[in-house]
Amino acid sequence: MASVPHVTAFLEPVTSTFSYVVSDPASGRCAIIDSVLDFDGRSGRTRTSSADRIAEHVRREALTVDWILETHIHADHMSAAGYLKDTLGGRTGIGDHTPVVQRSFQAIYHLDSGFNPDGSQYDRLFGKDETFRVGGLDGRVLFTPGHTPACVCYLLGDAVFVGDAILMPDFGTARCDFPGGDAHRLYRSLRQLLELPPATRMFVAHDYGPGGRELASETTVGEQRTGNVHIHDGVAEDDFVALRRARDATLELPLQMLAAIQVNIRGGRLPNAEANGVAYLKIPLNRF
Fold it and tell me: Domains of the chain: which residue ranges?
């Protein structure tokens, strides 16, 4: 009988981000998905408090890290992938269309030739339907562009980790107005996700508690098909695209976006320190 993954969620409240430790109970091996490096934009300071909570859990449960995975280049928070690799070991992974996003933001930030937009900042670039293992768990990569041109989801046993592509049923779906985003592609990606077995556990990267409900990280494919306010069964592609575009036109940029992307395109690592020993981030003025 195939092993059923054990999933532990970790909430970072400033950006309402859920990170996950997905472990194989039989072998004690695990993957970490969508970790957060804490960032205070007022002071420009980073902290590892959220990542340290994950590391403490891994050590307490005597787990061995096989993978530190990202569903995409996040715009709302910095990734702690580099820190967790240095702290716990394991290999970093992301989708193989990531260089498309890196090239786009290399131009936006006018990064010099020292930055290579080839995905080499990660240990593994996963292709569509590529498989991997976490102990005795079989994993498969689902290519789900739309929110960005490089988003992937990770299917491990009976659990799928969907990043920002789809949110809890009462909140809907991801925005598509970042560079390379496409609401038509997101619709098709989400229909692919919703063809998974209805009992498949679905873990989202964000929740905002609409109506004041308690924050939640887990739903099912079946619940999304019947109840997602943007893309439940019966919603046509053109209707979804019209809804998504109208909603996106009202949204502000995520608070940490201009800082976070510069770290995330580098595999969750800060830019190299300059001659004075200080690392700097660039802010493109009047670009967004």
Answer: 6-207+216-264
Element (H, E) at 183: helix 183-193
Burial class (CB in 10 A: 0-12, 13-18, 19+), 130: middle
How far is Cα 172 from Cα 166, in angstroms, rounded to an integer? 6
Coil vs helix vs strand at 28: coil
- Looking at the structure, give the CATH architecture of the domain made up of residues 6-207+216-264: 4-Layer Sandwich (3.60)
**Which amino acid type is present at position 122?**
Y
d(CA 135, CA 27): 6
Query: pTM of whole model > 0.85?
Result: yes
Of the candidates 188, 196, 191, 189, the residue with the CA atom closest to the CA atom of residue 220: 196
Residue type, 226: T
- How far apart CA 120 and CA 113 sit, in angstroms, is 14
**pLDDT string in tens for the chain (288-residue length):** 457 999 999 999 999 999 999 999 999 999 999 999 999 999 999 999 999 999 999 999 999 999 999 999 999 999 999 999 999 999 999 999 999 999 999 999 999 778 999 999 999 999 999 999 999 999 999 999 999 999 999 999 999 999 999 999 999 999 999 999 999 999 999 999 999 999 999 999 999 999 999 999 999 999 999 999 999 999 999 999 999 999 999 999 999 999 999 999 999 999 999 999 999 999 999 999
- Residue 243 to residues 6, 181, 204, 237: CA-CA distances in angstroms? 36, 15, 21, 10
